[in-house]
Amino acid sequence: MVGPTAPPPGAGGGQYEADYGTHLRPGEGEAMAAYVQAGKRIPRRGEVGLDSNQIEKFEQIGYVMSGSRHSRMNAVRIRKENQVYTAEEKAALAMFNFEENKRKEQKILEEMRRLVDSTLGQGDEEEAGPPPPPA
Asked: Which residues form the NF-kappa-B-activating protein C-terminal domain (predicted)?
């Protein structure tokens, strides 16, 4: 066999395969989404490896972090972040709708079971009379 082996099915790591839109480099959307899912700020260029508190301290001291000086790069970063946020919001909404539909289905099934049980339960009582005489 030549080349790497294919990963086993379902080895993607995530629950779903999200579409983060165009103009993102391979893996960039997934990496940004990992920060969003963890509730963290997406680091800009030069900030990778620092957490939000460290970055804030550097900015308060007076450091200008990379990417905050160039309006075009800032616009690109904002667009990419918005693509990721939108994809994550869509995924969260889809999961919420799935859970809501599942809950509604369960409620309907339970009502149907009660209806069947009550209908069959009444039918059994009507048919159940005195036991037949022994032969």
From this structure: 18-117
